[in-house]
Amino acid sequence: MAKGNIGAKSGLSKVNKVLFIIFCILLVGTIVFVAVSSPKVAPKAGEGTGTDATASSSEDAPVIDEFKAGTYGGIEFKSVDDVVKYYVEVFNYNKTLTAPYKENGEAKTYYKLLGDEKLEIASLLVDGKENATINKLVPGIMGGLFHGSPKGLSPSDNRDPQYDTRDDGKIDEKQSHLTADDVLACNVKDNGDGTITITIQPKAAELAYADKDSQGRFFNVLGDITGTVAEISVLSFSQGDANDNIKVLYKGGTGEITVDTKTKEVTKAYYMMKVHLDITHANVTIIKDKSATMDLEYSNTFPASDEFLKESKGITRG
Questions:
Q1: How far apart are CA 109 and CA 164, in angstroms?
Q2: Which residue in 83, 61, 35, 2 sits closest to 252, CA to CA?
Q3: DSSP SS3 for 131
Q4: pLDDT tens, position by position, 1-42
Q5: Of 1, 100, 207, 226, which sits with the fewest C-beta atoms within 10 Å of its C-beta?
Q6: What are φ and ψ of residue 85, in 5° steps?
């Protein structure tokens, strides 16, 4: 696992730093709760640690149909390279498109296509077991701590093109840098209405940094978590440090992008990123040498609903 610290030089967005804190609170709280409470329920036979039964395994297998060469929506795709090249063209073009909005009554110019963001905990386990009581509390905890905001096509860190950068402005999110080598699987579907849907599954990556790897060139990845965990005073490790005992695996996520082939405009899109966290040899106050796992699902849906825009940031279209 790559080493790293969260700090001023990391260039991570404030939102992602908040997410790290949420993860740590939930993991620490779960370790304490499960360790001191009695009603524990083991996972059923055949079930994994979350929505993907092999989330923590090293195997990186396709979860979508394989690519078939052909002509879709009047466009010929001979290879995966063709699909990725077209996706990059579509992405770059759509990030040149803007539209007028009002945010709390003030006129703004944002991306024409804005999406929402949602974060859900698919699974929390301590020493391989889940706790029914804390599972019921998780949605409320997440709802109180995480509030999504509108963003441009993933990866994106902002709704305003002029601020859609990362790493202190060094990474421009208005351009896609996805390559065919980043893609584990993809396919194309002709919808019969002048649109096609491209589905892409990027290759798995440990940790993941914006524009630095297969996941970071496709999703709004969360970067490093070890630095934040190291700052949690009640958490320590019976062996090694945070870098040794925290593993973060991005695997199994996909994106579906529907494109009007005449205009190259994206009419709708859905990105689902899946992240698996493992913590081992964790000490929480007087509780020693515990392991915990968490499966996260982070999604972006385009276009965002009027309700989401209004409720999240007081934004209205037009």
A1: 13
A2: 61
A3: coil
A4: 433 333 333 334 455 555 666 666 667 777 788 777 745 455
A5: 100
A6: -60, -45
pTM confidence score: 0.86
Lookup result for tokens 């001023």: 8
Taking 70 as the pLDDT cut, the residues of the chain under it are 1-26, 38-58, 226-230
* Sheet order of strands, 98-103 included: 106-111, 98-103, 315-317
Max distance between CA atoms of the chain, in angstroms, equals: 65
Beta bridge partners of 110: 99
58 vs 280: CA distance, rounded Å = 17
What is the spatial distance between Cα 217 and Cα 171, in angstroms, rounded to a whole number? Answer: 11
Place of tokens 């798995």: 204
The pairing of strands 265-284 and 235-237 is antiparallel
CA distance 29 to 195: 47
Per the DSSP assignment, residues forming a β-bridge with 115 are 151
DSSP 153: S
How big is the chain by its Cα radius of gyration, in Å? 20
Q: What is the DSSP string of 66-114?
A: PP--EEETTEEE-SHHHHHHHHHHHHHHHTT-EEEEEETTEEEEEESS-
Do 122 and 300 form a contact (C-beta atoms < 8 A)?
A: no
Q: Residues 227-253: pLDDT tens digits?
A: 666 677 788 899 998 889 988 999 999
What is the C-alpha separation between 307 and 154, in angstroms, rounded? 20
Give me the sign of the Cα torsion angle 61, 84, 200, 114: positive
Cα(86)–Cα(171) distance, integer angstroms: 21
| The pLDDT of residue 9 | 35
Cα–Cα distance, 101 to 220 (Å, whole number): 23
